[in-house]
TrEMBL record:
Keywords, in A-Z order: Hydrolase, Protease, Serine protease, Signal
SUPFAM superfamilies assigned: ClpP/crotonase, PDZ domain-like
Species for this entry: Cytobacillus eiseniae
Family assignment from sequence similarity: Belongs to the peptidase S41A family.
PANTHER family noted in UniProt: CARBOXYL-TERMINAL-PROCESSING PEPTIDASE 3, CHLOROPLASTIC, TAIL-SPECIFIC PROTEASE
Source taxonomy: Bacteria, Bacillati, Bacillota, Bacilli, Bacillales
Gene Ontology biological process terms from the UniProt entry: proteolysis
Name of the featured protein: Carboxyl-terminal processing protease
GO MF assignments: serine-type endopeptidase activity
Positions of the PDZ domain: 75-138
PROSITE patterns: PDZ
Xref: InterPro entries: ClpP/crotonase-like_dom_sf, PDZ, PDZ_6, PDZ_sf, Peptidase_S41A, Tail-specific_protease
Documented EC number(s): 3.4.21.102
Length: 458
């Protein structure tokens, strides 16, 4: 029976309007569903409570009763959608400052810019208000308007604009090619189109020598998306194991994908990686499809199903616990990383190891620590060199977690060359300087292997 409702869950999560399925009162339906499907037995004293909210309050934190409007908001959250004007805010003494504007959104089209300070919304002053209070005044129902008075960052004058609130789609998959041709893909939510968007990212980053898949701070989403995304990793055949209230284990296969991450692949997790994120992380780790970098994840190893009720409301109910395919528990335990890193160092540690894997066999030189942001590097060889074939691409300075830094490479004398970054280095930044074995000595002896050194900036 769980399998039936597991498949039904996938369908219902795609709906925007839920049709009535029964003429019974919602309370009777709720009690019956809890008795049959909730992960634990519930005492009669809870089931006889007089409202749906009172009943679900005594269940686990992930089981809840939702009106149709609340379900719409729930779905929008998974799909990275919100109703508003498209601005990110922070407090300011004069009002609320605009940190950034979502490209193409209502505020962007109205000419509002980062740095503008909103002093009132619909005539209500925002001076001294928290961001949360300001959001409650600026946001509202789709297609309604809000009049914003703000101090322009460009002219320092007071401007008034009336903006129509819209449903805004935030980017769910972000990607870029990091220095050293390491492909980076970040997933913010396990939404309906996530797999398709990840595949597009992989294809656009073709030629990557390694992959970093980032699900830090990802609170989960649809189980079907987790099954699909697990199918993107090499060697991974099984998605997860489910156990309903009977405790009987049932293993679900991945949904195979033709496009996949290629080895080596890392997954970034942290303490806010939860639910579907943990589902993918524990299964991929177990089947050696990727190494995990970061900290132990949140520990939400439960699955919820959505049941439509006769008045168009919904019951979100915990119906199973999930485990790794081999039975490793996740609930209230979390997923431990393969490589534990300090908080905030997940990406730099992963990028460093990807680069060292790509250039395995290069000789490590002593690290440079606390260098200035305007550092010029001097490389001195122990024999006379023939620098005539020197090319800029033979030297790479790569910011860990970022891009390659363009450099000027110049010959100082027959033994030495200098490497000068064309832009200032980032304060507190971490870099790897790679020198590839492309040159010969004065006597035409080829460099046997490349060299690298690690650099930290003060």
């Amino acid at each position: 029976m769980l399998k039936r409702y597991f498949s039904i869950l996938i369908v219902f999560l795609l709906l925007t309007n839920v049709s009535a399925v029964s003429a019974a009162e919602p309370l009777d339906e709720i009690r019956a569903l809890i008795k049959e499907y909730y992960i634990e037995d519930v005492p009669a004293s809870v089931l006889t409570k007089s409202t749906a909210k009172e009943i679900t309050k005594h269940l686990d934190p992930y089981s809840t009763f939702m009106t149709a409007e609340e379900f719409a908001a729930f779905s929008n959250g998974i799909e990275q959608q919100l109703v508003g004007v498209g601005i990110v805010l922070e407090e300011d003494m004069k009002g609320i400052k605009v940190l950034s504007v979502i490209a193409g959104g209502p505020a962007d089209r109205a000419g509002i810019q980062a740095g503008d300070i909103i002093v009132s919304a619909n005539g209500i002053s925002l001076a001294g208000k928290s961001v949360q209070n300001a959001i409650s005044l600026i946001s509202g129902k789709e297609h309604t308007t809000v009049t914003l008075n703000y101090i322009s960052v460009e002219t320092n004058t007071l401007v008034s604009k009336t903006v129509t609130r819209e449903l805004i789609k935030l980017p769910n998959v972000e990607y870029q090619m990091l220095g050293g041709e390491i492909g980076y893909v970040r997933l913010n939510s396990f939404a309906q189109e996530s797999t398709k968007e990840i595949i597009q990212a992989i294809e656009k980053l073709g030629g990557a020598k390694g992959w970093i898949f980032d699900i830090r701070n990802n609170g989960g989403g649809y189980v079907s998306a987790a099954q699909e995304i697990a199918g993107l990793f090499p060697n991974v055949k099984h998605a997860f194991q489910l156990r309903d209230k009977t405790g009987k284990p049932e293993i679900y296969a991945v949904i195979p994908q033709k496009t996949k991450f290629t080895e080596p692949t890392h997954i970034l997790i942290n303490e806010y990686s939860a639910s579907a994120s943990e589902m993918v992380a524990v299964s991929v780790k177990e089947q050696k499809g990727a190494a995990l970098y970061g900290q132990t994840s949140f520990g939400k190893g439960s699955m919820q199903s959505l049941f439509p009720l006769s008045d168009n409301s919904l019951l979100k109910l915990t119906t199973a616990r999930f485990y790794s395919p081999a039975g490793t528990p996740v609930h209230e335990v979390g997923v431990t990383p393969t490589i534990e890193t300090a908080v905030g160092e997940e990406l730099t540690a992963s990028h460093r190891d990807q680069l060292l894997t790509a250039y395995k066999g290069y000789e490590k030189l002593p690290a440079l620590k606390g260098v200035p942001v305007t550092k010029t590097f001097t490389v001195e060889m122990n024999m006379k060199m023939n620098w005539s074939a020197l090319k800029p691409e033979d030297v790479q300075l790569i910011e860990l977690g970022g891009k390659e830094v363009p450099v000027d490479v110049k010959v100082a004398d027959e033994y030495k060359m200098t490497i000068t970054p064309k832009a200032k280095l980032q304060a507190k930044g971490q870099y790897i300087l790679l020198i590839h074995p492309k040159w010969t000595s004065h006597h035409a002896k080829q460099m046997e292997k490349g060299i690298y050194l690690e650099v930290t900036v003060k």
